[in-house]
Design brief:
61 residues; mainly alpha; 87% helix; flat; DUF2065 domain-containing protein; transmembrane helix; DUF2065; transmembrane; membrane
């Protein structure tokens, strides 16, 4: 369970760093988000989940 909390904390650190370092880029990206099809967003999410799962699996083996 400690690993889960550590992973969630790391996600928050990375997200926060992106917003802190590149605020204008994040605003621009959010403005363009409605132009992207839901299918593309879903596919990107699935790819991110798969890559994240593979990284965790690689590290744990």
């Amino acid at each position: 369970m400690d690993d889960l909390w550590a992973a969630l904390g790391l996600v928050l650190v990375i997200e926060g760093a992106i917003y802190a370092l590149f605020p204008q880029a994040m605003i621009d990206m959010m403005r363009r988000l409605p132009e992207i099809s839901p299918r593309s967003i879903r596919l990107a999410g699935i790819v991110a989940v798969a890559l994240g799962w593979m990284v965790v699996r690689f590290i744990r083996s």
